Amino acid sequence: MSLNECPNCGEIVKTNEFFCQRCGTALTSPQRPRTKEIKGYIQIIGTVEIVFGIIGILFGFILLLFAFFVPYLVGTDSFVSNGPSSVDPTVLGGFLGILAGFLAIVGMIFSNAAIVSGVRLMQYKNSGRIGTMVIGAFSIFIFPVGTIFGVIALYILTKPEVEPLFI
Ligand SMILES: [Zn+2]
Questions:
Q1: Sign of the alpha-carbon dihedral angle for 37, 151, 11, 8
Q2: Which residues, by Cβ under 5 Å, contact ligand 1, an ion?
Q3: What is the full DSSP assignment across 84-146?
Q4: 5 strand-pairing partners
Q5: Residue 15 CA to ligand 1 centre (angstroms)
Q6: What is the pTM of this model?
Q7: In angstroms, what is the span from residue 32 Cα to ligand 1's centroid?
Q8: CA of 129 to the centre of ligand 1 (A)
Q9: Ligand 1 centroid from CA 165, angstroms
Q10: C-alpha to C-alpha distance for 127 and 35, rounded to whole angstroms
Q11: Which of 59, 84, 104, 107 is most buried, taking the most CB atoms under 10 A from its CB?
């Protein structure tokens, strides 16, 4: 039997409730220590989300620098003599610059959203819980670290005892 079921009737009960909504049985331990454990996981998820967000912003800046300089790098003599002769270096450099700039901006917006969500999650704001689930879902595609984070975050935050902790 799960710790989040009423011991009398088996109804799923919220961790902050003192009585079962269905049969009225008093709910004491072992629900309380479980809440503390879940809160610990939420704080860890929020911290990791903020750290990933900061790393993402830093990578975004590096990518943005690359975006600005790649047209000049591709246009250099050494690249032209060693590179594929069929490609116009000006076109290739411009294309790579736009692509890198686009990825940098998208990455920085996503990273900023991760930081904001992480802070709100750690403050038990419901917007932080929703935001972290959205970030977690997208993170699954960032293999392998983002995948691990996304799966764990979604697993913890979709537990029925988590929602009542948030305001
Ligand atoms: Zn009950």
A1: negative
A2: 6, 8-9, 11, 20, 22-23, 25
A3: -TTS-HHHHHHHHHHHHHHHHHHHHHHHHHHHHHHHHHHTT-HHHHHHHHHHHHHHTTSTTHH
A4: 12
A5: 13
A6: 0.75
A7: 17
A8: 28
A9: 21
A10: 20
A11: 104
pLDDT digits (tens, 9 = 90+) for 1-43: 345 788 889 888 877 777 888 898 877 655 455 788 899 999 9
Pairwise CA distance, residues 146 & 62, whole Å: 20
Instruction: Give 13 Cα–ligand 1 centroid separation in angstroms.
Output: 8
Tell how far the Cα of 2 is from the centroid of ligand 1, in angstroms: 13
145-157 and 126-139 helices, crossing angle to 10°: 140
User: Tokens 């909504």 map to which residue?
Assistant: 21
- CA 12 – CA 89 distance, rounded (Å): 64
User: How far does the centroid of ligand 1 lie from the alpha carbon of residue 22, in Å?
Assistant: 5
